[in-house]
Amino acid sequence: MRSVLFSAHNRVTLLHSGEEYFPALIAAIDAAQMEIYLETYIFASDDTADLIKGALIAAARRGVQVNIITDWIGTGTKKCKELQQELSEAGGNQRTFNPWFHRGISRSHRKICVVDRKTAFVGGLNINDDMSSDDDAKMRLPAPRWDFAVQIVGPLVNSIHIEAEAQWARLGPLNLKHRWDLFREARSTSSASSEDAPTLAGFVVRDNLRNRRTIQRAYLKALGAARKSVLLANPYFAPGRKLRDALSSAANRGVEVTLLLGVGQFRMQDAVAHAFYSKLLRNGVNIVEYRKTQLHAKVAVVDDSWATVGSSNYDGLSLFVNQEANVVVKDAAFSTALRKQIERAVADAVRIDPNDYANTPWYARFWYGAAYFLYQGVFRIITLGRYSE
Question: pTM for this structure?
Answer without folding.
Answer: 0.93
